[in-house]
Amino acid sequence: EADIYQTPRYLVIGTGKKITLECSQTMGHDKMYWYQQDPGMELHLIHYSYGVNSTEKGDLSSESTVSRIRTEHFPLTLESARPSHTSQYLCASSEGLGRGPQHFGDGTRLSIL
Amino acid sequence: AQKVTQAQTEISVVEKEDVTLDCVYETRDTTYYLFWYKQPPSGELVFLIRRNSFDEQNEISGRYSWNFQKSTSSFNFTITASQVVDSAVYFCALSEAGQETSGSRLTFGEGTQLTVNP
């Protein structure tokens, strides 16, 4: 069982609010990722990090930002939430090169009213 | 650029039937890794298997089996004697070996929704 945790599990919030989605892992993995996924659809990589103080944008453009100040913590922030941000956000981590599987958290289902 | 194609968007079977989920991939690397994940209705992604490009041996784990064929760039997943609890979206994914300083990213297929009816 992978030890990667996301909070909150569900969030319903109004437009214009600042939101931070939390992601923590206790496996000491250097690499962490954020994906955005609409229900039943493919996953889109929006941010990734290969270590502390390293962050990169993914394949899908996103208005969110991330930070990686500690190995275990990779929060995602939306400064001003909009209905178009409604989606599921999945955090993952992995070790090593591509050979390591990515372990996923349970996801945050975000709904912006 | 790497690409993963899961041509079957939805599959519906009756319990105890065998079902095969197809996955075809494209990559220019000679070293790469293939994965299958399961996403039940609760939304989390569950890692099922990893295969590296040098190991074409088929693998069986209980009712699950995987057929990796480099000649056709396919990595198909078969569930034998399906059960209702197998109902989920299944994703195939590809990762190239990458470099130590930059690592590598997963490219996911679009997923196959499997419904197993009682």
State the main characteristics.
heterodimer, A: 113 residues, mainly beta, seven-stranded mixed beta sheet, four-stranded antiparallel beta sheet, 11 strands, B: 118 residues, six-stranded mixed beta sheet, 12 strands, 0% helix, globular
Write structural notes for this entry.
The complex is a heterodimer of chains A (113) and B (118). Chain A has 113 residues and is mostly beta strands. Chain A has strands at 4-7, 10-13, 19-25, 31-37, 44-51, 54-57, 65-66, 76-78, 87-94, 103-104, 108-112. Helices cover 0% and strands 48% of the residues of chain A. In chain A, the strands form two sheets. In chain A, strands 2, 4, 5, 6, 9, 10 and 11 form a seven-stranded mixed sheet that branches. Chain A is globular and about 40 Å long. The N and C termini of chain A lie far apart (34 Å). With 118 residues, chain B is mainly beta. Chain B is globular and about 45 Å long. Chain A binds chain B through residues 2, 30-31, 33, 40-43, 45, 48, 50, 58, 88, 90, 92, 94, 97-99, 101-107, 109, and chain B through 32-33, 35, 37, 42-47, 50, 52, 89, 91, 95-106, 108-111, 113.
Number of strands of chain A: 11
Distance from first to last alpha carbon of chain B: 41 Å
Mean pLDDT score of chain A, rounded? Answer: 91
Helix-strand sequence of chain B: EEEEEEEEEEEE
Q: SSE string of chain A, helix = H, strand = E?
A: EEEEEEEEEEE
Span from first to last CA of chain A?
A: 34 Å
Oligomer: heterodimer
Largest sheet of chain A: 7 strands, mixed
Strand content of chain B: over 45%
Number of strands of chain B: 12
User: SS-based structural class of chain A?
Assistant: mainly beta
Per the principal axes of the C-alpha atoms, what is the gross shape of chain B? globular
Reported for the largest beta sheet of chain B, the result is: 6 strands, mixed
Number of H- or I-type helical stretches of chain B? 0
Strand content of chain A: over 45%
Helicity of chain B, as a percent range? under 10%
Overall mean confidence score, pLDDT of chain B: 90
Low-confidence runs of at least 5 consecutive residues of chain B: none
